[in-house]
Amino acid sequence: MNAQTSGFSSEQRERVLWLAFDRPHAGNAVNANVATAFAAALAQAQQDAEIAAVVLTGAGEKIFSAGIDVKNPQNLAHEALAASRRGAVEQCLAAILAFDKPLVAAVNGYAIGLGFMLALLTDRVIAAESAVFSLPEIDINIPTFLGISIVARAGGSALARDLVLSGRRMNAAESRERALIATVVPASELAAAAQAAALALAAKPQAAFALDKQWLARGLREEFAAANARSAQVQEILAAGK
Q1: For the chain, percent helix, then strand, then coil, each to nearest 5?
Q2: Options 1.10.486.10, 3.40.720.10, 3.10.20.30, 3.90.226.10; CATH of 2-239
Q3: 18-23 average pLDDT score
Q4: Model-level pTM?
């Protein structure tokens, strides 16, 4: 099976479904259509007995995902645009939290903003040596409460403070040293390593695996909802440039 729709593509390899952000002209950024396709693909994979695990990656060789699409082709007002972006983010996060099967990120390049967050929420991150991670929202006057929550859970509050307030880039080697990702491999070996990791996790007793994932995710829905609510509250401040 191989399909492409709405900037998102899928391909089944053995019992592993590969999902890819597929908008090369836009840095594989996530917009409303991509978020909807992503959520639908994970929901379908959850119900499909032929799918044992999922690998999430980016189309091409340089970008996993540039995060939420910051362009405004419909010329929406500031508040409407912000609400649309929050909706897309919420849809992606809810889809991951509802997915009980093994989910592996094969980070083939830049994982920026939401791309970084989604990778961190998977069960294992396999990265190419060229992978780069960052939360640069601060540089375009956007707070990232979700980014703070996700990085703090994965690597501690000190790392979250560093990455969020500086917006700096972190390479794959440093990410591995900080235990944010599991494995770093040459780009030529990324697909095989991610497939092997997905199959290894799929070989575990899946009832226990699902229950462990649910416990690991406890409180995240409430934390993410609070972060999104706070993001909505500060729109007036941001619009005023304060």
Answers
A1: 50, 20, 30
A2: 3.90.226.10
A3: 96
A4: 0.91
